[in-house]
Amino acid sequence: MSDSDVSATVPDWSRETVQRFWDPGRKLLRSIRRYQAARARGGPLGRLAAKYWVLVHWFWSLVTQSELHLNTEIGGGLRLTHPTGIIVHPEAKIGPNCMIFHQVTLAGPVELGGHVDVGAGAKLIGPLRVGDHARIGANAVVTRDVPAGATVAGIPARIISDSD
To answer: Is the pTM of this model over 0.90?
Structure first.
């Protein structure tokens, strides 16, 4: 599957499937998904399951040194390729099939569209919106909206390419 075949609207859940015992990024995501499902189910068993997933989330957050809040809106198919030091504000929204590398910060109400790739060390300081199929370069500091299909890089981030 080439990069252009990845959908910005239909989640590819296989990207989140735990593939081995030590798979911290996917296990962190699984704890968030299962916590949200348990909360939505409600009732005594739902509350008990939610408490269990809070503990699992806490463990994987410590292992990865990342902060992805349990109630963060995350579209399906998120890939945390190297899930170390990722900080996501609770008001941030992540679209389907995004990929976030290590040391990324989504500060404030940042909204990532579908299939957005965020390079290592990038800082997105909201409020802002990143369009579908956009790419954020490593160590970029993004303070303004990014149009769909654009590639941005630099400090402050500037558009270096407008299309795929």
So the answer is: yes
